[in-house]
Every structure is written in structure tokens, then in C-alpha cells.
Write a structure and sequence with these properties.
single chain, alpha+beta, six-stranded antiparallel β-sheet, 7 helices, 23 strands
Length: 391
């Protein structure tokens, strides 16, 4: 399959001690590439994971709702004046897409797989805490968008920006984004502040009306104030909460409200509460045979159900072959082993650090996105239900 769902943006890095390998012009040379490829299906999945609840606005990832604004070019460029039809709509949509670009960049190039909105982390800090660690806002004003994690013991902050106007590492606005990190303090006992590494990922969206500009991503890695860097050991309680909140969002999307609440609030899921699921198998591609817990959303046109129970077995029902106006349903799921480990984590019989990740993912179809946290979205045609399983 071709990569028709791919665009390019320019890349600018600031204050990186070394350039990540995936961003280098050559593996042996510590110099960043000038053009960064962006897979639109993966971008959609990050957008959906971040912005929507149980059901996406248009569940077919090949119909990513923002595609209507893109020119049919190799570069990432927006039609006419950009997102939306008014200044306010452009501001909102640019912010949403800035968050998607941030998550996608950190996932693909800095190995950061787990994301939790900072207000939910602060809310959890007030309710349950993080061992002997305290997290607080020390000044009025905006804070970074996320606590995120590479692993349970590697926790970071991230600020996402998206806009149509120019971005520069030297302008006042970029400095104001750096200042957001100064308003947050992570403390250990006796009030000693710890410095937390973070990233600013700011995306400028080029438009048809300004043909001499190019879409670009600007990335910098500031830190919060502190007397010493948050160590891997000290970060484990906070990292565990980030993973719990990350998978709580996924559990909500999989219609598992009790599991989601246990992960969200931090209470132990009792053994007597069963988590019933349907397990599906991926039918094609390099990961054929891989099993996922999940389900599907019907097409946006409201077509007929594509599955039914017959003689105790699940049977696929093909839609009317004469109708060309009904799009296929979309599957969303979480890899079976990882789902099992998340449930065991919620039950208190496994730590967050023992949750696996999905490696060795290879591109094989433009409408399927599989992320390394185990989550997947794609056309239902590629998945078949194989078993009911209680966890």
C-alpha cells in the first residue's frame, strides 16, 4: 500500500544535547533532518485519543475530519486561510491539532507513549497523592498541557501549541510558553523542589493564502525549577498515575466504565467485578494474528450492523453489495496481553512498570494506526471476533 496518508513539515530543534536518531539526516551525524514525515492516520488517532470521549466525531480514520482543510500536496498545507471559517474556530482547531502533533512527535521520536492532562494529575494529587511527593501550582497562569511518560520511572512535562502565525525560539510568545514550566513545582519531603524535564512542541500551520510559508514543528526541552532532577526512583508513583490515567481514557473508549473509574480515581478493582470483553484478531499485515480487546463503531451513515450472533457463534454480516454509499465500520481496541496487564494493575496484582508495550510495528495500510501502548484503530474489515473473554 502507498503512503497517501503522509505529509511533511519542517523541523526545528532547540537545546537538544543530542539529536534523536529518528530525526537525524544521517545516523552517524548529530544533525536534525529538515523535513519531518507525518502519518495522518497516526495523527488522527492521537487527536481522537486526546480530544474525544467514547465515540469519535467521524470514526473512519481514513476520513480524518481535518483532511477537508488540507491541500492535495506532499507538504502539510491548509486550504485558503486555514482551519475553520472564523478567527475563533481557527484558534480552537489549531490548538487541537497542535496537541495531536505534540503527542505524535513525542510518541514517534522521543519514545514517550503515555499522556495525562495536567489538570487530571493535579486533581489526583489532591485526592490520593503520589507517595511522599507533592505537586502544586506556585503562580497564577497557564501550565504545561501534559504529564507524560516514556516508562513508569521516566516522567516528563509537555506543552503543545498550534497556530497559523509565525513561531520563533527567540520571540516573546515562545518565552511565555517556557514560563509555564516555572509555575509548577514538584516537591519531595521538607519542601525541596525537584526539576522535571519537559518539552515544548509548537506547530505552525502553513496555508494556501500564504504560499511562501511552510508548516513547521519547533521543539525545545525546558525544565521546571528545582535543586535536583527528579530521579527515576522518585518518579515511579507519579509515572504510575500517568499510566493509569492514560489507560483510563482508553478503557472509557472501550466501554469499560468500571475499569476506567478504577484507573482514573486510583481505587483497587475488586476480584468479584468481572471485566467482560470480546477478543478480536487482526486478519492481515505483518501483525496478522495479533489479538485485541475491543469493538466497533458503525459507519457515519448509520448502516446495518456488521456482526450478529447465530447458533451461539459470532457471524460477520456483509452489507448490501449493491450499495456504494455505506462506509465500513471502524474497529478500536487494545492488544489483548496489554489489556490483561492493565486489568491486573487495576486489581493491584501487577505494577504499572510491568505493563508491556507493543514493539516491532510496521506500516502496512494507510487507514490503520497501531500505537506502541497497544491501542489500534482501523477498518472493521481487517478484524474478526474470535472469543468472549472475562478478565
Amino acid at each position: 500500500m502507498g503512503r497517501s496518508m503522509e505529509r511533511t513539515v519542517k523541523l526545528f530543534l532547540s537545546k537538544f544535547h543530542t539529536t534523536p536518531n529518528s530525526l537525524r539526516q544521517s545516523p552517524a551525524i548529530d544533525k536534525p533532518t529538515e523535513k519531518l514525515p507525518v502519518n495522518l492516520t497516526d495523527l488522527y488517532f492521537h487527536y481522537y485519543r486526546d480530544m474525544h470521549g467514547r465515540s469519535p466525531p467521524n470514526p473512519d480514520p481514513s476520513l480524518f475530519e481535518h483532511l477537508q482543510y488540507l491541500t492535495p500536496t506532499r507538504e502539510f498545507r491548509l486550504l485558503r486561510d486555514g482551519f475553520g471559517v472564523s478567527t475563533s474556530s481557527r484558534r480552537i482547531l489549531s490548538t487541537e491539532m497542535g496537541c495531536a502533533f505534540c503527542r505524535c512527535f513525542l510518541h514517534d521520536h522521543l519514545n514517550i507513549l503515555y499522556f495525562a492532562h495536567i489538570d487530571r494529575v493535579l486533581d489526583r494529587a489532591m485526592k490520593a497523592g503520589f507517595g511522599d511527593m507533592f505537586i502544586m501550582q506556585t503562580q497564577a497562569g497557564d501550565l504545561p498541557d501534559y504529564f507524560c511518560a516514556e516508562a513508569v520511572n521516566k516522567v516528563y512535562l509537555a506543552e503543545a501549541k498550534g497556530r497559523h502565525s509565525a513561531i520563533s525560539f527567540t520571540n516573546k510568545e515562545f518565552q511565555s510558553w517556557r514560563n509555564q514550566f516555572d509555575r509548577l513545582e514538584v516537591q519531595r519531603p521538607k519542601g525541596v523542589p525537584l526539576s522535571v524535564k519537559g518539552y515544548i512542541v509548537a506547530t505552525r500551520f502553513a496555508t494556501e493564502s500564504k504560499p511562501y510559508t511552510e508548516s513547521a514543528v519547533y521543539v525545545e526541552d525546558p525544565r521546571t525549577p528545582g535543586e535536583g532532577l527528579l530521579s527515576e526512583e522518585q518518579g515511579v508513583p507519579l509515572g504510575s498515575a500517568v499510566l493509569a490515567l492514560h489507560y483510563a481514557d482508553m478503557a472509557h473508549k472501550l466501554n469499560q466504565p468500571v475499569l476506567a473509574e478504577a484507573l482514573d480515581i486510583g481505587f483497587t478493582l475488586p476480584d468479584e467485578i468481572i471485566v467482560p470483553t470480546v477478543v478480536w484478531e487482526l486478519r492481515a499485515g505483518p501483525l496478522a494474528g495479533k489479538r485485541f480487546v475491543g469493538g466497533y463503531y458503525p459507519s457515519s451513515e448509520g448502516g446495518p450492523s456488521q456482526l450478529r450472533i447465530q447458533d451461539g457463534s459470532i457471524v460477520r454480516v456483509e452489507h448490501d453489495p449493491f450499495r456504494l454509499d455505506i462506509r465500513h465500520a471502524t474497529f478500536i481496541g487494545l492488544e489483548e496481553r496489554i489489556f490483561s496487564e492493565v486489568v491486573e494493575f487495576a486489581r493491584g496484582i501487577r505494577t504499572a512498570g510491568e505493563i508491556s508495550r507493543l514493539d516491532g510495528i510496521q506500516f502496512f495500510y494507510s487507514a490503520i494506526s497501531i500505537l506502541r501502548d497497544g491501542s489500534v484503530i482501523g477498518p472493521l474489515d481487517f478484524f474478526s471476533p474470535v472469543a468472549n473473554r472475562n478478565f
